[in-house]
Amino acid sequence: MKKIISTDKAPKAIGPYSQATEANGTLYISGQVPLIAETGKVIEGGITEQTEQVMKNISAILEEAGYTFQDVVKSTVLLSDIGNFAAMNAVYGKYYTENPPARAAYEVANLPLGVMVEIETIAVK
Length: 125
What we know:
By secondary structure, this protein is of the alpha+beta class. It has helices at 47-65, 85-95, and strands at 2-5, 20-23, 26-32, 72-79, 102-107, 117-124.
């Protein structure tokens, strides 16, 4: 059975999708961009600040669903410029200090709202 996960501590969906869905002990978090939940605006700064905001948004959704970063098994990182990989990775690594999840990272032509990074996440209990 599918359960919709939603929290005011992460940005509201900006289209016909949910922040996350849970089914059979697996949590699927939609791609998170660096929006500030309270304002709905993109955080100011570069890739470091944007990645930090994305990870905070993911954290809020994980918490709402009763999961932690230790439950994450897969992430997909979309970057507007693969040259930002090292800076993104430095922030990302702070959240996965032990037993990091599987991950893919891609450069894409464009991301919503002109942001530099979007990360989708799958967690399992």
